[in-house]
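Re: that backbone. Tokens:
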């Protein structure tokens, strides 16, 4: 079925296909669900959406549910997991294609899973990949501007997120988010609000950052609504030492090296603020920042904004290549640099990402922090004409540290 539909897409004139594109995606979603026997009806499915924190909440909630002894499947930008079987998400797509997604759910059913925790993106919703899936619970992390060019406006981006909530029985909403009222208008059998301030004081969360308290609160409340005891939730959360590519320390001494996925202005600011607090009050400690921005027409508006945020927090800025796709990487760096003003130090532009990381590490002294953002645990650098170069910021940083 999928092959026939893709063949039709190839031969139908583009203007005609664009007109019928929503119907095409809708048909593909339901065709996949039927083909694999409507597997979501046999699972309790929790959808996690928002701008930042989705993958972390998927990891946290999955760990909590596994702590109960139940079989769990989970899917995020980081990994696919069905019970004890786990593999990396290497498709450069958080929500896979409809047939792959429904096959994943079917395999989860065959493996005896009770729960499936899915990261749900606005792009996936835009292409109806969530259709044909019966969501029991919808969880909102936060909403800040992203994918503006793709959706047409922030309002349309936010509206796309709401489509996960229509039809979901239970809504878990962040009461500290500015868009709470907008999401509260959506009908549900039950609505539950959470805040990082509601976490129990005795919780020993190993993940640093105020934003990770928000993520933990989201997972805590979701798990409670699924009937998990507070003792089990606390035990599971306290066991989580890291989430791949999310504030991941490569080393802490003599200077810290951290890799993080932050690729939106809001996420970048929170990461920089967290690392500044971790440095304490030492005035001599520097924050050495390696950053870029994705090409392919992805949110060009945010490039100067990320430059401005870097200038506010960093002592040294090294701009580098990220995922240029078919764009000129030099132009991307110029657009980031355009947001940097009144910066007291030279700005380095090093297109080769390995060289940029090497320069950052060489310039760090004891007590400093090198923060490499934008890719986290992603396994590729995306180039022109769909090319992929194998990559991992974490491994490259380790290799360059050894050379030092």
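Recovered sequence:
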């Amino acid at each position: 079925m999928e092959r026939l539909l893709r063949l039709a897409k190839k031969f139908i004139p583009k203007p005609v296909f664009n007109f019928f594109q929503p119907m095409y995606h809708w048909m593909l979603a339901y065709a996949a669900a039927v083909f694999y026997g409507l597997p979501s009806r046999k699972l309790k499915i929790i959808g996690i959406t928002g701008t930042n924190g989705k993958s972390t909440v998927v990891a946290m909630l999955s760990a909590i549910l596994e702590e109960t002894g139940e079989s769990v499947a989970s899917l995020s930008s980081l990994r696919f997991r069905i019970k004890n079987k786990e593999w990396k998400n290497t498709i450069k797509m958080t929500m896979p294609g409809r047939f792959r997604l429904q096959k994943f759910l079917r395999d989860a059913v065959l493996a005896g899973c009770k729960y499936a925790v899915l990261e749900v993106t606005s792009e996936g919703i835009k292409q109806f990949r969530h259709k044909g899936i019966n969501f029991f619970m919808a969880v909102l992390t936060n909403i800040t501007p992203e994918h503006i060019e793709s959706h047409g406006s922030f309002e349309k981006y936010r509206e796309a997120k709401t489509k996960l909530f229509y039809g979901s029985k239970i809504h878990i909403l962040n009461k500290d988010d500015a868009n709470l009222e907008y999401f509260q208008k959506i009908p549900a059998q039950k609505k539950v609000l959470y805040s990082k301030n509601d976490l129990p004081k005795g919780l020993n969360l190993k993940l640093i950052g105020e934003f990770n308290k928000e993520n933990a609160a989201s997972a805590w409340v979701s798990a409670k609504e699924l009937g998990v005891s507070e003792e089990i939730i606390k035990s599971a959360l306290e066991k989580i030492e890291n989430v791949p590519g999310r504030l991941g320390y490569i080393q802490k001494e003599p200077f810290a090296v951290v890799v993080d996925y932050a690729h939106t202005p809001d996420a970048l600011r929170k990461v920089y603020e967290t690392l500044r607090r971790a440095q304490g009050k030492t005035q001599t400690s520097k924050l050495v920042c390696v950053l870029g921005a994705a090409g392919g027409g992805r949110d060009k508006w945010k490039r100067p904004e990320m430059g401005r945020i870097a200038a506010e927090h960093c002592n040294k800025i090294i701009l580098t290549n990220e995922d240029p796709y078919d764009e000129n990487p030099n132009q991307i760096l110029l657009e980031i640099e355009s947001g940097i003003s009144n910066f007291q130090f030279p700005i380095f532009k090093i297109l080769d990402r390995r060289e940029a990381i090497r320069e950052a590490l060489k310039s760090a002294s004891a007590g400093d922090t090198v923060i490499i953002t934008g890719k986290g645990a992603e396994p590729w650098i995306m180039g022109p004409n769909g090319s992929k170069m194998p990559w991992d910021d974490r491994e490259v940083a380790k290799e360059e540290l050894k050379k030092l």
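The two ends are 54 Å apart (CA to CA). Residues 143 and 158 are 7 Å apart (CA to CA).
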